[in-house]
User: Fold these one by one.
Assistant:
Number 1:
Amino acid sequence: MILVGTRKGLFFVEDGRIASVHFPGVQVPMVLRDPRDGAIYAALDHGHFGGKLHRSDDEGKTWEELTPPTFPPKPDDVEDIYCPMRKIVIPWSLKLTWELTPGGADEPGVLWAGVIPSAVFKSTDRGATWELNRPLWDQPGRAKWMGGGFDYPGVHSIAVDPADSKHVTIAISSGGVWQTRDGGATWAATSTGMHNSYSPPGQEGEPEGQDPHRMVVCPGDPKRAWVQHHCGMYRSDDGCDTWVELKDVEPSTFGFAVAVHPTDGDTAWFAPAKSDMERMAADARVVVVRTRDGGKSFETLTNGLPQEHAYDLIFRHCLDVDSTGDRLAMGSTTGSLWTSDDGGDSWATVSEHLPPVYCVRFG
Amino acid sequence: MPTIGFTANVAKYVDVSPPRLTGDTVRAALEDLFAINPKLRSYVLDDQGAVRTHVVVFVNGEAIADRATLSEAVKDDDEIFIAQALSGG
């Protein structure tokens, strides 16, 4: 099954068709199937009424509303932090649940949530209750993190090391890549090698000023990771400690989404877009670029994707690969959903009429 | 006991009962409501207990001014009404 979160509801797709619709009219920025117990989690954004979290244990027949990640009362003796660009206060209040990731296989019931503003929450009881990770929230460097498309910075990528559940890597837009090796007690910035071309002169390489749009770590080869950054494409060969830029990839090194093969860390897919100023499909053609040699070369995949007057943008959570590495799914801002059964060589259209797509995940 | 009402747009998502509350301020009345119906809290208030940016709390048809502490007094025959502020699309 493919779970598709959109601006106007959650859609389940089976056998190439829309099988059911959930939460019609409500924004669904993130959805997760927990492979350990089969539960489906849906993060909702009601706009007026805030972020919510629901869980289904019966394939979406019924949903239970859970307590969403909630910030604790802000202590009076803690000073406000301001966005370094816009000088607005970063609130102690959930704006959006942007990422949901299961804990390790040895931690049943553990979930990690990445949210806007830039915080990580952990649940140990299948999402019933959540605790703010204070060591990350209290990082002095957080004052350098900033919002982009949203008013505040946010955590959009969380990867739990399959070999060590206490080793968790996250990516923040904008705030760089951070890692904990002790289950969240301490964190270190590991954005070395990334380059932010729009920073003031001399600050382009500052780890905390980096804007990774999406980070994925190969589950079967966790030393290998990939990032689609605001200013380029990157690969890590050392478990996200350092990053190597991939240059001269056509049609563009700008974009939001990236997916990595579940076992072959050399194989990754990106969904490029035309420049950060336009944010549309380059040349009005929807393409996926794929590398199978660790980024030495890329193929441009177009078979089955619209190649004229297509203005789709693929958001950061809208390109996913299943556990076989063969099946891909991709959704766009203009409501298109495509799938591939052959690693991206060819694509089939599921719909061109969905609401704007926020999240696509196999589950 | 002040009464409370909700826009149908809230009632669509979550139980909004009971209709009558105890409390002599808006905050006290809403805390009475949330004690009975905890899920409603996050629909009305943000994480720090202020009224959500896009929510309005009316008392007898007047939008409250103190959106951070909700200190306005309410009497037994007052009507609290909660609606969404117009925005979005």
Number 2:
Amino acid sequence: MSEDAQAKDPEMMTIIAFSGDLDKLWPTMILGSTAAANGMDVTIFYTFWGLFPLVKDEVRITGYDAMTKMLAMKNPPGFQKAKLSKMNMGGMGRWMMRKVAAKNNLMPPEELFEISQDLGVNMWPCLMTMELLGIKPEQMRPGLGEPAGAATALARMSKSQISLFI
Amino acid sequence: MDVAKTVDAKGQKCPMPVLMTAKAAKELQPGQVMLIEATDGGARSDIPAWASQTGNELVESSQEGDVLRFYIRKK
């Protein structure tokens, strides 16, 4: 990059990752990594169902009451267990989609996540969702930003040339 | 043209050719040229778009069979 390009502030993109579905995680990771490769300053804010992929694959979210236990049971954490929003067919759809992707050399979302981290994409977990679900910081993937709230995300979106809700 | 680095993105799907190009660009000195080879049809427009977005110069592009080649000079 030229010194001129480095001197001026880079363009910004903010994605609100609201869904934990595999079919939504893919475009989130593709757009996030590519924007960073294009020199943009990228932040992804993971909230509600979008937070589940950030929890380590081996962690079992247990919840703290009947409702959160049910939520945790229906939403196993980690990228690997992310379901398709349609035609998941008890995991068959997810398996087929991943198989087709691998056959065509499309990177799985968890690998694009790691590449995005290498490219400097800020990964912000939503603090409210963490508290709601009883998820502790040590149960989440390494290299995330400080858990933040809606106002922090909005402050960044107001400065971003591109803001997406996926 | 002196090629300082070659990026083999053949067989890789979107967005990998661009991500590999961006990574390689970080390892180049200003003025050096890298060659990117890709077979993903999306690279035809994605690599030039990346170059213009990042201010690097697309010196030359060509196609031979399925393989797209891009020469990019780092700014």
